[in-house]
Amino acid sequence: MHFITALIGIYRAEIGLVILALMFVAFVRERYSPTVVSVVGACAFALLGLLDEKDLFSVFSNSAPLTVGAMFVLSGALIRTGTINRVADLVMARAQRHPRLALAEVTLGTVVLSAFLNNTPVVILLIPIMFKLAQATGYPVKKLLIPMNAVAVMGGCVTLIGTSTNLIVAGIAADQGMAPFGIFDITPYGLAGVAAGIAALAGLSFLLPSDPPSIAGEDGGNVQDYLTELILSRDSDLIGRTVGSLSIFGRSASLLGLKRAGEIRRRGIEEEELHAGDHLLVHADGATIMTLRESGDFEIGLAAASETPGGGTVIEAMIAPSHPSIGERLIDIPFLHALRVRIIGIHRARHLPGPDLSETRVRGADRLLIAGSDDSIRSLKDNAHLIGVDISRARAFRPRKAWIAILALTAVVLLSAIDVIGIGLAAFIAVGVILVTRCIDPEEAWAAIDGDVLILIFAMLAVGLALEQAGSVALMVGWIDPLLAAAPAWSLVFLIYFFALLLSELLSNNAVAALLTPLTIALAHQLGADPRPLVIALMIGASACFATPIGYQTNALVYAAGDYRFSDFVRIGIPLNLVVGLAVCTALVLLG
Questions:
Q1: 320: which residues sit within 8 A by CB, 6+ positions away?
Q2: Which of 37, 10, 28, 14 lies closest to 463 in space, CA to CA?
Q3: CA gap 587, 193 in Å, rounded
Q4: Side-chain half-sphere of 447: how many Cα atoms within 13 Å?
Q5: Longest C-alpha distance within the chain, in Å?
Q6: Is residue 51 within 8 Å of residue 464, measured between CB atoms?
Q7: Which helix (H) or strand (E) holds 537?
Q8: What would you report as the CA-atom Rg of the chain, rounded to the nearest whole angstrom?
Q9: Residues 6 or more apart from 518 whose CB is under 8 A from it?
Q10: How high is the mean pLDDT of the chain?
Q11: Which keywords fit this entry according to its UniProt record (predicted)?
Q12: Which sign, positive or negative, has the C-alpha torsion 181, 183, 187, 193?
């Protein structure tokens, strides 16, 4: 035992590199998730004594992961208050009037949104917009989805809070003794990449496929839209207004028709005045339906008896193939008459049911939104002909609190930009504000945090610290130093950027950032170079990955929505990687 301990003590640096190499192999093979590999790697360092208990848990004092978590919550608040959906609706309204000009506006808007928000919800919201823009402009949707995603990724490289990778690198750099990064310190270099990238996308669009997706449908595979009916209440302020004047319709809700006295009209209804009891046939997502339900202007959906309450808990349930009402009208479904419930929407995969809610013929796998009392919901859960009965995840937007969420995020940006307080503290104060003002409920706030990302970050911080303490970083720098000693200082920027880019096309961006930051700083000190431009090159190079569907988390979203092939990403991504990388590195050399 003493022999093994002594052996580990002598070859600490080499053993650290062996563990790192095994982790790299595990990352590439993808048999386990990057988070699992990172945690196991950190545990291996701890078990071998290369990282003691105190140092292992010291990574939890790093502000970067906590700041990332706070920014997840702030993004969630903007979604919960309907702010992002409202922006998307405005874009769609604009696209209907000026579709080609809207493409340029969407590009600019994507850069701005991605610079301050998590890319993932931005891309999710933009996917159906791209499908609609493709219809309006006549451009193939496959020529729009990859460029939209690439612009979102590049936009995330414009500010320090644009991606979690930027925050991780900045946090580690501060722990290494570097001056803290400001929120806009990387902006000139990120904008250089954005400008070059957009120009490259315009010139290289011929490399993108033009065939239509075979699986996504017209909305990019959106599976949350429901057919519902809005019944105008007798005391509604909307009585007497024209159908076309309603502001509820946009990207999230589309008007299908007007039903009055049992007759359905689908055309020429925009100038029709609304009467009490009118039924508006609407196709909308769950959140929009819940928001309309709380507005008080409408009764939502279908009930067997007029006295059925409009409130209650909302659940989702799927019709089992064995349901006795298969093929019958929804109005005749047994539980609608036996229980005090209201069906407020029906979703059918890849098909729009109809002609209206009551006359829809029930099919197996139809998904229903049902509102009812607690007793009625318990009865539905016991119904053998319903599958997956559970509380609906759809929540009503809180538009009246949108200004609070916007102001909170704006304050984070401004206060950190003028160095009043650090970005981490500003983000945490903003989270406190949006929680106490109920822009978002606590359980929704915690659900908005991607725990997998935070665990990965903490684990890789531990691995990076272990490599440094074991002497592995110094050993690697010693190997690299003779090779770069005679190289000009500017070449280090290109080397770090493209090395980070290459690794991030294969591995997790955050893992690459956590591993390379201490190595980059140590290498700069060893060569007598300024580490700041190198660290910025690492930030952007680890995120601006376009050549594979796994290079960045949003790449996989458009890969599936657009029904792309792997080679489609490679064909456009490699030249885009080169153009953006050369622009960023040149800006760093000239301005850094």
A1: 364, 384, 385, 386, 387
A2: 37
A3: 9
A4: 9
A5: 91
A6: no
A7: helix 531-543
A8: 27
A9: 172, 176, 464, 465, 467, 468, 473
A10: 82
A11: Membrane, Repeat, Transmembrane, Transmembrane helix, Transport
A12: positive
Question: At which residue do the structure tokens 């650290």 appear?
Answer: 16
Q: How far apart are CA 275 and CA 253, in angstroms?
A: 21
Judge whether 331 and 359 are in contact, CB under 8 Å.
Answer: yes
- Give the whole-angstrom CA distance, residue 139 versus residue 116: 29
One-letter amino acid at 412 equals V
Structure tokens at 508: 């997790």
Buried b (16+ CB within 10 A) or exposed e, 429-453: ebbebbeeeebbeeebbeebbbeeb
Angle between helices 63-80 and 83-97 (to 10 degrees): 60
Instruction: Report the amino acid identity of residue 333.
Output: I
Token look-up 């019958």 returns: 328
Q: Tell me the pLDDT tens digit for each residue of 496-530.
A: 899 888 888 877 788 888 888 888 888 888 888 88
The CATH classification number of 225-391 equals 3.30.70.1450
Tell me the pLDDT band of 7, cut-offs 50, 70 and 90. low
How far are the Cα atoms of 250, 254, 380 from residue 88, in angstroms, in the given order? 8, 14, 36
Residue tagged 């607690």 (tokens) = 374
Q: Could you tell me what percentage of the chain is helix, strand and coil, using 3-state DSSP and rounding each to the nearest 5?
A: 60, 10, 30
> What's the token pair of residue 366?
């139809």
Across the strands, what pairs with 254? 283
> Could you tell me the pTM of the whole model?
0.72
Helix axes 509-527, 531-543, angle to 10 degrees: 160
Contact criterion met (CB below 8 Å) for 155 and 110: yes
- Residue 253 identity (one-letter amino acid): A
What are the extents of the domains in the chain?
A: 1-50+451-591, 71-215+399-448, 225-391
Torsion sign (Cα): 586, 587, 588, 591: positive
pLDDT tens for residues 270-294?
888 888 888 888 888 888 888 888 8
State pLDDT tens for residues 307-327: 445 567 888 888 888 788 888
**Cα–Cα distance for residue pair 182/159, rounded to 1 Å:** 9
Hey, what amino acid is at 571? R
DSSP 231: E
- In whole angstroms, what is the distance from residue 534 CA to residue 89 CA? 40
Q: Are 103 and 203 in contact (CB under 8 A)?
A: no
Residue 543: closest CA among 572, 518, 569, 580: 580
* Upper half-sphere CA count for residue 123 (Cβ side, 13 Å): 27
- 3-class state of residue 53 by DSSP: helix
